[in-house]
Hints:
It is found in: Cytoplasm. The chain has ten helices and ten strands. By secondary structure, the chain is of the alpha/beta class. A five-stranded mixed sheet has the order 3-2-1-4-5, with helices on both faces. The protein has a five-stranded mixed sheet with strand order 8-7-6-9-10, sandwiched between helices. Helix 2 runs parallel beside helix 3, helix 4 crosses helix 10 and helix 5 packs parallel to helix 7 (213-228). The protein has two domains: 5-120 and 304-321, Nucleotidyltransferase, domain 5; 128-299, Nucleotidyltransferase, domain 5 (2-Layer Sandwich). Bound molecules: 5'-O-[(R)-(carboxyoxy)(hydroxy)phosphoryl]adenosine and zinc ion.
Amino acid sequence: KKDVRILAYESSCDETSTAVIKNGRDIESLIVATQIKSHQRFGGVVPEVASRHHIEVISQITKEALSEANCTWKDIDAIAVTYGPGLVGALLIGVSAAKAASMATGIPLIGVDHIMGHIMAAQLKDEIEYPALALQVSGGHTEIVLLKDPVHFEIIGDTRDDAAGEAYDKIGRVLGVNYPAGKTIDAWAHEGKDTFNFPRAMMEDDDYDFSFSGLKSAFINTCHHADQIHEKLNKYDLAASFQAAVIDVLAHKTIRAIKQYKPKTFIMGGGVAANHGLRDRMSAEIAKLPKQDQPKVILPDIKLCGDNAAMIGAVAYNLYNDGQFADLTLNADPSLEL
Length: 338
Ligand code: KG4
Ligand code: ZN
C-alpha cells in the first residue's frame, strides 16, 4: 500500500503550525510558531494580533515543513487545514494558505475540526482501538467524546459554562500568573495541599456534563475576601485546592463513562491533557478497574497536547481514507461544532 503524506496547517488561535504527517502516524516534520509573548501583556489572546502574526510566518513555515520532511509538493497527497472552531481572523489565514496551495498544485484539500485534532493527537503516539472514549480538555472546550471509528463519534458530555483550561487561565489571573496559566498552576499545585475544599459541581449528577464557573467564582471570592481582611493565602495551597476540584470532577465523570461505554481505548487530548495531576489521576483510576474493563490508555506527548498541525494531519489521514475532501468553497467556521 502506498504511503499517504499530508501537509497540515493549524492557525485557530495563537500558534501558527505546519507539519508533514505520513500515514496519519509518523511526524516527518512539525513547526510551531508560538505568539504567546505578544499576547501576554494583554492577559489573553488579542485576535488582530494573532491574525497578523499568522500572516507573517505562514509562507515561511510551509517551506520549512516541506524541507524538514525532505519533501516537495510532488510528495504531498493532501493538504489539510483547521477550519474551526477558533478565532475567525486567525482561522482564515490557515484556510486561505491551504486553499491557495491546493489551487496552485492541484493537491486535494481536507478541512479539519480543531477539537477532533486534539483528540487524534493520541493517534500520533499509538494505535487507537475502537470504540474509543476521549476526554478532550482545552482552553475552549471540555468534552467526553465516544468514537465508534476514526470518523464517527458522539459527544456524551460537555461543559455547561467555562472550559477547564479557561478556568485555569481565569484563576491564574487572580494569582498574577501570566496567560496561559495552566502549566504554572499545575506546578504550584504539586507544592501545596487541598486545604480550601472548593465545590465539585455536578459531580454526583448522572450525566456526563461539567460546570466550572462555580468553582472559578468560589476561588475568586476566597481570594477577594482574604484581601479585604488583609490575610495572605498560600498560593500553593490555593492552586492545589483548585486543581484537586477540577481533577476530581473530570476523573469521576470520565471513569463513570468508561464503566458504561466500555471503550477499548481511552484517550486524553487538549492543552489541559498536559496537566500532570490529571494524567496521573486518570492512569491510576483506570488501573483500579477490573482487568477486563481496563481500556488501553493513550496520553499524547505533552508537546502535542497544545495546538499543533501534526494532530490536524492525523485527523486528515482518517478523512482521506474515508473520502472526505473539501473544495475551494471551504471557509473558516469560528463556531464549528464536532
Ligand atoms: O488546547 P489548547 O492549546 O488551546 C485550545 O484549543 O484551547 O489549550 C490551551 C489551554 C490553556 O487554557 C492553558 O492554560 C491550558 O490549556 N493548559 C493547562 C496546562 N497546560 C496548558 N492546564 C492545566 N495544566 C497544564 N499543565
Ligand atoms: Zn486547541
